[in-house]
């Protein structure tokens, strides 16, 4: 499981766990589609302050920290979504003054686009890839929130209707594991935000309600990494963005908070590449933030007085212990502990979330 810190206790923690990358983001934009192919991250379409509904296709290389402009998407649009199948990017739906069901395929190997068979016109929907097909569900068709769930097979260039999403939502987020598709939050037909979580099983063509999110959110991003689903950011009605990271474990149907993002955001873009989560805000302010779950091998314990005991869960990874007097030591918490003295817990720079096998949970008493 990830770091387990209750929301009431974590807001004072360090949030500079993110590595801002050096390359300047080339073009302002929002409501883009994002996809990763062979280590390159593509940001496509969106709303651009100069041309409104953008055809832009920009590729970011995390290894060289550089951006490259690629062949533009034929149909300029915002609030479209992208999925990757067999190293090709499929961009579907969106809005450009009209609600779109357009589907276009981009091949990074040839830097070329091909028009494909479209489906239901919608925007602010969820899209995932599972078993070689696109799953597009829910969203808004210009008149109302919808429940429509369709899958696209690139082999046959055809769409098939599947069991509808259980409720009409838009501005929801979605992600897939190896076997299931998940939908999170969103705005209901009555205009209220949601904390609902639904799971789709393609083998039975059925949706099932799962444990609610820890808080309501729409305009969030959801990505799967190592069997866990990270629901990042979003907001709920007030227009104030969240910095929350809600982490869902499908195996146990449970939620926990991760360490919050340093920049609160909604309607941004997140994608997994090379076992890291990349979060891009191409609006104002610009930000490209990178989370590395494998780097959380340490936590800092800073002593403040002498009345509280901190218990550290057993972990195979040594934890670095810091006290307020500057004494630094490394202790194997399998043999050391509890650490006595009231403390504040912080996560060092360039650290992010731990995985189940490297849990570094800290409980304050």
Q: Mean pLDDT across all residues, rounded? A: 76
Distance between the termini: 20 Å
Number of domains: 2
Beta-strand share of residues? 35-45%
Helix content: under 10%
Number of helices: 1
> CATH class of the largest domain, anyone?
Mainly Beta
Would you tell me the structural class of the helices and strands? mainly beta
- Detail the poorly predicted runs: 1-22, 296-365
CA radius of gyration is 21 Å
- What sort of overall outline do the alpha carbons produce when their principal axes are compared? globular
Instruction: Profile the largest sheet.
Output: 4 strands, antiparallel
Number of DSSP E strands: 35
- Architecture of the largest domain, CATH level 2? 6 Propeller
Kindly report the CATH topology of the largest domain: Neuraminidase
Widest sheet, order of strands: 1-28-27-26
CATH superfamily of the largest domain: Kelch-type beta propeller
């Amino acid at each position: 499981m990830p770091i387990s810190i209750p929301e009431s206790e974590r807001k004072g923690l360090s949030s500079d766990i993110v590595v801002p990358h050096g390359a300047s983001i080339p073009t302002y934009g929002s409501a883009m589609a994002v996809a990763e192919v062979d280590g390159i991250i593509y940001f496509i379409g969106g709303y651009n302050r100069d041309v409104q509904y953008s055809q832009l296709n920009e590729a970011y290389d995390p290894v060289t920290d550089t951006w490259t402009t690629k062949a533009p998407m034929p149909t300029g649009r915002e609030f479209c979504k992208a999925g990757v199948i067999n190293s090709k990017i499929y961009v579907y739906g969106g809005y450009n003054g009209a609600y779109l069901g357009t589907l276009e395929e981009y091949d990074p190997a040839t830097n070329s686009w091909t028009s494909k068979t479209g489906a239901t016109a919608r925007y602010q929907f969820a899209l995932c890839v599972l078993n070689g097909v696109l799953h597009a569900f829910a969203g808004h068709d210009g008149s109302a929130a919808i429940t429509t769930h369709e899958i696209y097979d690139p082999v046959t260039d055809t769409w098939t209707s599947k069991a509808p999403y259980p409720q009409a939502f838009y501005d929801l987020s979605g992600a897939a594991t190896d076997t299931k598709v998940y939908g999170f939050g969103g705005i209901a037909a009555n205009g209220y935000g949601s904390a609902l979580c639904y799971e789709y099983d393609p083998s039975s063509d059925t949706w099932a309600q799962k444990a609610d999110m820890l808080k309501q959110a729409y305009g969030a991003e959801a990505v799967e990494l190592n069997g866990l689903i990270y629901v990042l950011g979003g907001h709920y009605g007030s227009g104030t963005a969240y910095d929350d990271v809600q982490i869902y474990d499908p195996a146990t149907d449970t939620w926990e908070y991760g360490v919050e993002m340093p920049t609160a955001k909604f309607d941004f873009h997140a994608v997994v590449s090379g076992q890291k989560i990349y979060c891009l805000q191409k609006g104002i302010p610009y930000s490209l933030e990178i989370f590395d779950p494998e780097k959380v091998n340490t936590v800092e314990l800073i002593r403040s007085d002498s009345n509280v005991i901190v218990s550290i869960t057993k972990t195979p990874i040594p934890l670095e212990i810091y006290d307020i007097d500057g004494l630094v030591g490394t202790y194997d918490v399998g043999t050391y502990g509890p650490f006595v003295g009231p403390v504040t817990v912080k996560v060092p720079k360039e650290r992010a979330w731990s995985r189940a096998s490297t849990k570094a949970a800290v409980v304050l008493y």
